[in-house]
Amino acid sequence: MSSQAEHPALMIPGPIEFDDAVLQSMGHFSQSHVGPPFCNTFGEALTMFRKLLQTTDPASQPFIVSGSGTLGWDFVAANLVEPGDHVLVLHTGYFADSFADCFETYGVKVTQLKAPIGDRPQLPEVEKALKENKYKIITVTHVDTSTGVLSEVQKLSELVHRVSPETLIVDDAVCAVGSEEICFDDWGLDVVLTASQKGIGCPPGLCLLMCSGRAMESFKNRKTPPSSYFASMKNWLPIMQNYEAKKPSYFATPPTQLINALHTTLTQILSRPLSERFAAHREASQRAKQAVASMGLKQLAEKPENQANGMTAIYLPNDLKAPEVLPNILKRGVIFAGGLHREIAPKYIRLGHMGVSVTDPKRRDVDKAIEALREGLGEVGYKIP
């Protein structure tokens, strides 16, 4: 049984429910951020992050920095491109717009390749765009939290390496790491950026990036200094290298309690084969999606190949709006998220199913969420087919 205070099951696509041991590790007594015990903990967390992304290339460089996933955009825009460079942003929802806005803040020229809501840009369209212009970077949102759309990152990477091999491939995997398989080396990715509070299962407050040797060479060869101070790889690179070598180092104080929690959750994740973890997420996802279909409801991501394993975005029926339904679900002890896509936000809701809610066989969070959705819709007069 959980030792946490009684609370509604948080079934949004992040932050997610956290394991007791992860939360308890946040209560670790205060430590020096340059003392040997913390250096060991941080160093092991960096190495475990490599294992989670399945990279063994010594040229790959992890970064774990205080901040949200949004900071990852700044890292990319401030270090891997320069003013006037061109980037291609593949658009599957809200977060592509935001990443594009971040690039433009740094004087980078952005082209967006947009798909209809619930879909993703098709590979022939991407190939055509890459042949028409030279891009320093292409970005893809692995799972867009606003739509639940899953991108075909491996095939996309193969395409980019074939058609435009000099273009760096940046995977915005905030809603994917920990719930979707990512093979950093085998897929030839250059950056994977994420945050702590979704599939990784750690409280919010950490930005995590993995950069390839090719990305780091691109950074070292830039003509101008990094255009951010806090998000500067120049400032953070020696810190990360020293910590992974378990040596004290300082640029800015790391959040020691969060690093302890991250160490705990990564240890848990890696204690069993990653293949089992991803299979558990696929099973829970199919259970949720089949239940949604059985209620006569549609997903934003209508095509099965576009559907994420860590979340489900659900259109509401009969012109219902999210504020009419979400309180009824909450009364049944479950929290869903409202819509986030600007064009259709009131028309849909989002269910998260990732992390401990699907990997702990003692929990029935997903089943409870499905029941709450069914009953919550019934309360506003929707008749299940």
Automatic annotation (TrEMBL):
Family note: Belongs to the class-V pyridoxal-phosphate-dependent aminotransferase family.
EC numbers: 2.6.1.44
Gene Ontology biological process: glycine biosynthetic process, by transamination of glyoxylate
Designated name of the protein: alanine--glyoxylate transaminase
Pfam families in alphabetical order: Aminotran_5
Transferase listed as a keyword: yes
Boundaries of every Aminotransferase class V domain copy: 27-339
InterPro entries linked to this entry: Aminotrans_V_dom (IPR000192), PyrdxlP-dep_Trfase (IPR015424), PyrdxlP-dep_Trfase_major (IPR015421), PyrdxlP-dep_Trfase_small (IPR015422), SP_NH2Trfase/AEP_transaminase (IPR024169)
Species assigned in the record: Ramalina farinacea
Any one GO molecular function term: L-serine-pyruvate transaminase activity
Keywords of the record: Aminotransferase, Pyridoxal phosphate, Transferase
GO cellular component, one term: peroxisome
Residues bearing PTM N6-(pyridoxal phosphate)lysine: 198
Positions that bind substrate: 350
Cofactor(s) in the UniProt record: pyridoxal 5'-phosphate
PANTHER family found in the cross-reference section: ALANINE--GLYOXYLATE AMINOTRANSFERASE 1, AMINOTRANSFERASE CLASS V
